[in-house]
Amino acid sequence: MKNDYTQNEKRKSLQVEMKYKKRKIRWSKLALAFVLIFAFFSFKPWLIPTLGQQTKTEKPQRHFYNVDRETTVEGQVVDIKFEARYEGKGHFLILLVKDSSSGEEVEVETAPAWFFQTDIHQGEKIQLIGSLAEEEQGKKVIMAREIKINNRTITLRDRRGFPAWSGGRGRRR
Length: 173
Prior knowledge:
- With 173 residues, this protein is α+β, with helices and mostly antiparallel strands.
- It has one helix at residues 2-58, and strands at residues 70-83, 92-99, 105-112, 125-134, 140-149, 152-155.
- The longest helix is centred in the N-terminal third of the chain and has 57 residues, at 2-58.
- Residues 48-59 have low confidence and may be disordered.
């Protein structure tokens, strides 16, 4: 009887010891996880500049409307696409227009797609007024202020270049 009692006591003490070791292993794994997370975030500032350089080349350059560089283009719509031009803004309607006077294809940045209530199709004749900007690749980009298509005039910006879709006249935010 005494022998059974001591064996039971030994078993219980081993079980308690095993529980303690399991807890110790759990805590050591948790501590290791915290150390790894801390190490990752402490090295992150050195990683940010390299990641930022990669994303800068992928994003299109931001243009500002310049009244002094205003031009008029008449031509035909060659291609239509939607692009996210500005961070946090909707997709913009981008037109590729073949200039009838020079034969050159010009990219035309219009307005957010939700702003349009007129359908524009490939092959349609178009006349537009806008500010001429050039990207790094030498490609001409025009920020449209006014578009005339199908005997209809669409005003996208006021005469100073403030967008009609954001309240116009440089409203404060």
